[in-house]
Amino acid sequence: RVFRSSPQFGVTLFTYELLQRLFFVDFGGS
């Protein structure tokens, strides 16, 4: 399968990066 035709791959990366940023902000901010 090509990643271009599978939007789920992009959504997964976006969600993973978003969660990682949220955790990083929580640990750094507090």
TrEMBL record:
Protein's name according to its UniProt entry: Uncharacterized protein
